[in-house]
Amino acid sequence: MEKARKQKGGMDMQEMMEMYKKLAVPGAPHQMLARLEGSWTTRTTAWMGPDSPAMEGAGACEQKMLLGGRYLQQEYVGDMMGETFTGINIIGYDNHTKKYGSVWIDSMSTGIYCFEGSASADGRTITQECTYDDPVRGVMTWRSITRVVNDNTLEYEMFLIPKGGKEEKASRMIVTRRQ
């Protein structure tokens, strides 16, 4: 009977549940994300390629914590090449892996983009990467940098790295809390 209670690795069910409970408690990284809740305005500069002129756009972002303070949902709306653009990002910190993970979906694609990365020592800069198959250019890496400038200002930068190619800046967004 005792043998049946043990799982691989020698832990019984109670020990496993205690470990999972401990890892599920939101900590300092989650508290940093929670400080980003609220209504924000966005100013975006985007480049469609390394030799393309910059395009400017404005928009809004609503941010709220989900599932007891474990994840931040960011819901964007703005303008992209004369079209309304919407996107949703869910970002969280995994206490087990000690990494940030996020999932991005938007109205200009049917893809689901999964990012993973880490934060700077002060926790104010999060760098994540995602590999995806671009329908025009093939397999690429998408690098995202999130900077918490202060309690009322965020900066996002996105870079594309074509397989075997040189990194290209794709966009920069300044996000300002509505007062």
Describe this structure in words.
- With 179 residues, the chain is mostly beta strands.
- It has one domain: Calycin beta-barrel core domain (Lipocalin), CATH 2.40.128.20.
- 12% of the residues lie in helices and 56% in strands.
- The chain is built from 3 helices and 10 strands.
- Strands 1-2-3-4-5-6-7-8-9-10 form a 10-stranded antiparallel barrel.
- A hairpin with a 2-residue loop joins strand 3 and strand 4.
- The chain starts with a helix and ends with a strand.
Helix content: 10-25%
Main sheet properties:
10 strands, antiparallel, barrel
> Structural class of the secondary elements?
mainly beta
Total helical elements:
3
Based on the coordinates given, report the CATH architecture.
Beta Barrel
Distance between the termini: 62 Å
CATH class membership: Mainly Beta
Low-confidence stretches: none
> In oligomeric terms, what are we looking at?
single chain
**Rg, Å, rounded:** 19 Å
Could you say how many structural domains there are in total? 1
Question: Element order, helices and strands?
Answer: HHHEEEEEEEEEE
Strand adjacency order, main sheet: 1-2-3-4-5-6-7-8-9-10
The CATH topology annotation reads as Lipocalin
Strand content: over 45%
